[in-house]
Amino acid sequence: MNNRTIKRLILLAGLLVSTGMLPAEAGDLISSVRQGDTASVRQLIESGADFNQAGPYGTTPLMFAAMYGWQDIAQMLISAGADINARNQDNGTALMIAAHKGNAALVRQLLSLGATPDIKNRSGATALMLAAHRGHVATVQTLLAGGADINAQDLGGWTPLFFAVNEDHRQVAKLLLEAGANPRLLAKDGSSALELAKRQNDPVLIQLLQRWGVPEEAREN
């Protein structure tokens, strides 16, 4: 999986919606959420605003709250009935956005309120994969505690461990292995996490994976 594929994966999570891409007609609620205006959001909800209203790319108010890290607004929207597992046009969720941002507190909040940890975007990536890719240790721990599938595979066969190894996130890779990640799983192209570490020429990761008993010729699917 090359850098272009990685960038596409992140894009497909719906995480790159810039503030300049939101037209005025997208609605007052989304604008108030983006600004972190709690009082305005409360007033709009009480007056009957559609809290599942979607802006560009199907991005909901809750997704914008996750993007900007507004925990109180996220709570308010969910309490009002916002769909916590709503998906944008690329199957991204609020939990994926919070995980990518490394907001462990918000991830914990969303999980406690019913967010499904293993929803996959169009690339087959989960919130745990996005957190591992970014090296967010606390977020990875939170997702694992919330029941995220540690051995889930995306469309290319990559697991969270692959994403951590690919970015040289040694602490995350160690955490995943200690939590039960299977280092023998192979990507669709037949490569293993160990082979990826060797391509990265990272002696620490190579030693770590070898210490966990990964044979050179790992071929288990």
TrEMBL record:
Coiled coil: none annotated. Pfam families: Ank_2, Ank_4. It comes from Thermithiobacillus plumbiphilus. This is Ankyrin repeat domain-containing protein. SMART domains: ANK. Residues 1-26 form the signal peptide. InterPro entries: Ankyrin_rpt, Ankyrin_rpt-contain_sf. ANK repeats lie at residues 57-89, 90-122, 123-155, 156-188. It comes from the Bacteria. Keywords: ANK repeat, Repeat, Signal.
